Amino acid sequence: MFNKRTKIKALLATEPAGQEVTVMGWVRTFRNNQFIALNDGSTNQNLQVVAALGLLDDETLKRITTGTSLKVVGELVVSQGKGQKSEVKAVSIEVLGDCDSEQYPLQLKNRPSLEYLREIAHLRFRTNTFGAVFRIRHSLAFAIHKFFNDKGFIYLHTPVITASDAEGAGEMFRVTTLPFDNPPRNDDGSINFKEDFFGKSTNLTVSGQLEGELAAMAFSDIYTFGPTFRAENSNTTRHLAEFWMIEPEMAFYDIEDNMNLAEEFIKYLIGYVMSNNREDLVFLAQRLADEEKQLPQDKRSEFGLIEKLIFVQSNAFERITYTEAIDILLNSSHYKKKKFQYEVKWGIDLQSEHERYLVEKHFKKPVIVTGYPAAIKAFYMRMNDDGKTVAAMDILAPGIGEIVGGSQREERYNNLVERMEAMHVPVEEMQWYLDTRRFGSVPHAGFGLGFERMVQFVTGMTNIRDVIPFARTPKNCEF
RNA sequence: UCCUCAGUAGCUCAGCUGGUUAGAGCAUCUGACUGUUAAUCAGAGGGUCACUGGUUCAAGUCCAGUCUGAGGAGCCA
């Protein structure tokens, strides 16, 4: 009958009137042999459980240490102490699971570092910081489904295993059942994938977009939200080998509609978290402010976390073309003082330093850049009338960089084939994709939002490994 | 993958231009106290100085390599 218990979040929201309650959770601290700070993950707030002197025998008292799980039955009463409104006066306390304090690595008074907590990712959920981060991560995931559901989008499950490596979005993880010490080979020595499980070479998906486009050509509006895999040897604060991505795809949308949707989407997500995870945001904002106090003045951010979110939510994103972006960079004093490490000229891919200058120094808010040179963008992006640029859009966020990448898709069969050939994409293997352009093709567009980057942006966590429960990065696949 | 920095007690760190038995705070353990808020007070235990090799009378400290981590770059979401 565990279901009779009340969660601490609900309990703290009710008026204390001496009513009997059952609570269960894990001990955060045990003060003065009397006061147990109990947490069950429903909220960052701890519940104070008071074990009156004499209630417990010495044996039981000794078992109550940080990390121990308890079942407490008692009365919800007005607290006599100052730190909390209400508390539970225990009638009985049962130890559900002991926690050996000599072995338990999470003594919270030690202020463990984020790096250390990553090594004990199975326990870090029990900290205030990660409690807040993962409750917000959940809220964002829920808000994503709500946003699209309310707009009549279909949630499409695109495959995790794919045969196409055509998108060129990065290095892929191979999926195979062939013995790697002695695989079957062709006469020329290459591996014979006809013998493999699927009868061809297969990989983990790097994007669900192409499949998403197929469904959009029937449902009008779809979105995907699933895991994505990139085998890049990236060691940065914003890359993972396994991450989650949201990819909406909309028929009868042009690049303008696409930008409008993406901006509305991001603002909606921020608004949702601000009204549903206030307490967690306040905690993270405080954490961030404390952390920034350690930094030299010029490295501190202008806004607190919540001010930043309000600002982003209530101001229009700046929209500029790639060509305008290059002009801004070329005319900047930063450029004239030769402070950019990389060359700036039309045709280059914008470097991190360029994006950061535009977003953090020049506009100081999210920027949507459109109209990139065709040569530096993917084959499926729609060629503009100038014949040089494509209808691509990247949304750059302060502190994170590229958070959204999208485009209007090339819906004209001949133009698409031409682009594929120019970029050496195997046309024959992609006929299933090209067929959508043969049978009732329509203008359409879509984008990809990096879920973890969005969680980073909202929580202010600076390392992407701290916003996913179990991070997969080069040389790290624990748990 | 490249560049830079780091690895000393369970955690966070100090340890100077190489020199006796490697320190602190917190945690842990023992005891005291008992309306505490990261409870407090007293005492105790706790170390392969990442690993391998080298230089030296002598290495936590200097050198080389390896591993791991962090930050930045590239790739991108």
From TrEMBL:
GO terms for biological process: asparaginyl-tRNA aminoacylation. Keywords: Aminoacyl-tRNA synthetase, ATP-binding, Cytoplasm, Ligase, Nucleotide-binding, Protein biosynthesis. It is found in: Cytoplasm. GO terms for cellular component: cytoplasm. GO terms for molecular function: asparagine-tRNA ligase activity; ATP binding; nucleic acid binding. Pfam families: tRNA-synt_2 (PF00152), tRNA_anti-codon (PF01336). Residues 134-469 form the Aminoacyl-transfer RNA synthetases class-II family profile domain. It catalyses: tRNA(Asn) + L-asparagine + ATP = L-asparaginyl-tRNA(Asn) + AMP + diphosphate + H(+). InterPro entries: Aa-tRNA-synt_II (IPR004364), aa-tRNA-synth_II (IPR006195), aa-tRNA-synth_II/BPL/LPL (IPR045864), Asn-tRNA-ligase (IPR004522), Asp/Asn-tRNA-synth_IIb (IPR002312), NA-bd_OB-fold (IPR012340), NA-bd_OB_tRNA (IPR004365). Its main location: cytoplasm. Its EC number is 6.1.1.22. It is an enzyme of class 6 (ligase). NCBIfam families: asnS, PRK03932.1. PANTHER family: ASPARAGINE--TRNA LIGASE, MITOCHONDRIAL-RELATED, ASPARTYL/LYSYL-TRNA SYNTHETASE. Homodimer. Belongs to the class-II aminoacyl-tRNA synthetase family. This is Asparagine--tRNA ligase. It comes from Parafilimonas terrae.
